[in-house]
Amino acid sequence: MRKALAAVAGLAVAGLALAGCSGSSGGKDGGDPNQVEVFTWWASGSEKLGLDALTKVFNEQYPDVKFVNAAVAGGAGSNAKNALASRLKANNPPDSFQAHAGAELTDYIEADKLEDLSSFYEENKLNDVFPKTLLDRLTVDGKVYSVPSNIHRANVVWINTELLNKAGIDPKKAPADIDGWLADMKKLKDAGVATPLSVATDWTQVQLFENVLLSDLGADGYQGLWDGSTKFDDPQVTKAIADYGKLLSYANTDGTGQDWPVATDMVIDGTAAYNVMGDWALAEFDSKGKTYDKEYTTWPTPGTDGTFDFLADSFTLPKGAPHADAAKDWLRTISSADGQKAFNLAKGSIPARTDANADDYPAYQQGAMASFAKDTVVSSLAHGAAVKVSWLNDITSAIGQYVSTKDAGALQDGLVQAQTKGLGK
After folding, report:
1. Would you state the pLDDT for residue 22?
2. pTM of this prediction?
């Protein structure tokens, strides 16, 4: 998916507030009504394949509406976020834009840049087909501002089965906790695997850290970090920081600056044994011709079994959208059974709709669908579901410094400060 919220993007998004509420209402089409400009960061690779699959369904459902692809490449999503913020501030919005469901939308909502889609949900009976756990995460003060195209899971370990077998480790059996996982990494290192764990750029390092927090604190403790009921100076956070440092000692040192496919490809080509990545990685394995449960497998990050670390790609209707009616057609395709099936089969994620047929999906996605239905769902930090952009940027900065300095005390201090600022205390 891309998956990043780079710090520079937050600066641009924060500037939205300066634009005030001067955008016009997005109810009337301007110019040619038979087109829809959709803004994403899905410009290449498996992400573009997913967008292409979705637009194919859109073209079939609405053949008289021209789809205008306004994808912005580069910067792991930060380029797109900066360009989007500039357009919204200038009251020149696209007809719809991609964002992560959850707290990432806070700045747009507070700047009065998004239309309330509650009536759209009612008209299209989406409240009946989206699960309550998802609807709760989409609702802000009783209103819904985006339509999800999928559900992704962020607490997934991708495993090269050959490397584990050679080291005498059963790839189908996940360690019970981080300590057990570290013990297996030592076995891999002793067996000659130079890089047991692969990492990439800053957001992947944040995602790894959130997985360690979830493992060491449990679902309740982890969720408490975002409402203040768990403090970042808690001893369990201290332990998580220590565990994070130990994991990084088994990781490649050149990850910063590399985007996520590089780290995932290290598992695919056998230069790394493990990679913690969301299930957008499934499309990467598929594109390289790898077979699930043969050349690679997956399990929840050790210590997080029974928990689903959630994020979702979603699309909005900006205020002042020049082709608002066509944008609603796009949102109908996104939320339709056919649209969700086509998109998620290409993307590796699972459909947001509860009426999807699991038999239409391969083994990994069937397992993820079952997990989302029964497990405890928590919101991803790294992918905008748990906290607003400014708070995530502060955490990303603190982790970036830690990766360079390995100063655990400074990291914990930075996390405490970020929480205090994020909660407005």
Report:
1. 35
2. 0.92
